[in-house]
Amino acid sequence: MINILLLEGQNGQAPSTARSLHDLEVKVFAITEGRINAGYASRYIDKKIVCPHYEEYGAEYKALLFDFLKRQEIHAIIPLGDKSARFLSLNKPEIESEFHTTCIVQDFPLFDLAQNKQKLMALCEQYDLPHPRTRKIENSEASIRQAVDYVGFPAMLKPDVGMGARGIVLVHNEEEIRQKISVTLDVCKTCTLQQFIKNNGIYYNVMLYRDFEGKILNHTIMQIMRYFPIKGGTSSYCKTIDDAYLVEICSKVLEHLNWVGFADFDIMQEEGSNALKILEINPRIPASVHSACVSGVNFPKMMVEGALNLPIKTYQYRPGKEIRFFGLDVMWFLFSPERFRFKPSWFKFWGKNVYYQDGSLKDPFPMLMGCLEGVVKYMNPSFRKAKLKK
Known about the structure:
By secondary structure, the chain is α/β, with parallel strands linked by helices. The protein is built from 14 helices and 16 strands. It has a seven-stranded mixed β-sheet with strand order 14-13-10-11-12-15-16. Helix 1 links the parallel strand 1 and strand 2.
């Protein structure tokens, strides 16, 4: 029996990840912040370990995890969020040495390059891969002028290493940069100025698995058309498609990084020119992973097989699936002015190719708990301000 531990098991991808591992002989554990969340409600997670909410994953979280690993044999750990992925990458050598537990995350130098927006965009610039114009910026007149000369306006101030949408602000002139840069630097000590890409309401999520020999074993592409927050957030409705160009440009990035394992790209389509721009790599399982699973590709299983040196099974990709993250789609409906005009209709609940990211008839409670969690969160005024006034 293989024991797998999910970190940030409260996140929406926890039920999908656990469900994807169900046909392996595994027992799935999850460390989850509280009980009102999709992960805690899932029947596919065998054991839930409830922990406090930690704004930063530091010494307290490390003590909790290490205490658990001392008591329970775990063969591999999968992070499901930005905080836990960075934490696990930083502590990977110690965890693997002390507990003989495989951490399914990149070593920190590569992880940091992928997660750091300025470093990743510099790599794309170096190898002439499509990306928004981006420059490091500091709170000084010389740095502001240098960044503006290259990037232009409108632009986005972004933390180099962000958590969700925190610290991302739109600026139209140098004076706005001077007024708002401190907000971004409060999130991260370093930040970038990045070209604002006005998109056409659609962006893409590209998932790939690259093996030790540099071969892309599988890929999937999500065309994301509804998301929350509505100014740019997590997918609440998407379709799986295929596009050779998207696979090509993402594969080239992984080649230059010498990346082995799973990777997830966000790519935006620019309005007017329809140019495609690489925005970032998420070096962990994204919330939309179930889109790949229903389209025939089981990335969580591939990740575990690769990490534990088992034969990696490959899959036949079958695009054309529609996937809803219902807890977020309810929030999209409540806040979007397009709620009754969007095509296909928000009220299309069933169909041959319609699936749900956060639940199923065999595992219905994550969907219900996810909706409740969304309501609870949006009763918090500070949370609403952070998400809706980006």
